[in-house]
Amino acid sequence: MPSGERRRARGRARSPRGFTYLGVLVLVALIGLALASAGEVASTAARRDREAELLWVGHQYRAAIMAYHARRHALPQALADLLGSAPDDPLQVRSLRRLYPDPMTGAADWTLVKAPDGGIMGVASSSSRAPLKTAGFDDADKDFEKAATYGDWMFTFVPAVVRWRPHQ
After folding, report:
1. How many other CB atoms are there within 10 angstroms of residue 61's CB atom?
2. What angle do CA 138, 108, 104 make, to 5 degrees?
3. What is the Cα–Cα distance from 123 to 114, expressed in whole angstroms?
């Protein structure tokens, strides 16, 4: 076989391998894109779960502050006050089982919402991320629809001001 024909024969033999290599590279790139989008979906689902947990925990804190106020006629001075009664109280009643961490940060770094006359009237997340959920809140949480960050989700209990009026 003349040398020119050998070169052409070798070139043809290598050609299918080059296409196979290129096909494998495209396949690997497509698999990478599919895995990246699956990771994004999983991350969004996990964040939605943490949002739901934040709503549940926030409601627990709101209910605990409400129960504490109903029993003591005052707001707690610290979150730890929600865990039990004062030593001189005849009934040892807990308003909250335990101090829950902020689901959005994973730490007990709540932003405390202070009452004008002292005490804690609520908690808010310390996260500055924008929420995924922007609608469909309970009536007590309707203001959350306007929230720019999770920190704007304030779970507060505002005691009703009772004014005493003498009988006339």
Report:
1. 24
2. 50
3. 9
